[in-house]
Amino acid sequence: MVQLQEIVDEHFQEGQPGPGDDDADYTDTDSEISEESEYDPRDETLGERLYALRDIVPRQTRGYISNTVSTAGNAMKSVLSFSGKTLWIISSSALLLGIPWALAWSEENQVLEMEKEMKMREMGGDLLTAGTHDESTVGQISNAISPETKAAL
Description:
The protein is an all-alpha fold and about 150 residues long. The protein has helices at about 10-15, 45-50, 60-130, 135-145, 145-150. Helix content is about 65%, strand content about 0%.
């Protein structure tokens, strides 16, 4: 003998989409969002705001902006690297060449000044020991001083 058994389809057990019994008294003016929102725009960071713009700005424009910023950054990095290397070369060259030259130049000037001083002492000594001449002291000094020294005085 054959027994029949009823099998219930689960698909028919679920509710159908559409207005339910609870939704009959719902209106747009009774919104839960109206005043109870926890969103505060002051809590939002600049990074979050920029990240939200990705939905507004088209993909192609974002790619162009990204490439432009990347190119500008790479150019700036190259310029700074080159200028740093150039500054290093100039400063090290100045230290290696300039300082010894400046020391030698100042030493040479000191030697020249010492020679002038020795000449002046000799002339002064000659003037003091040569008291037998008829010329005045001013005339003797004038004759002993070279034209270059006269111009400097």
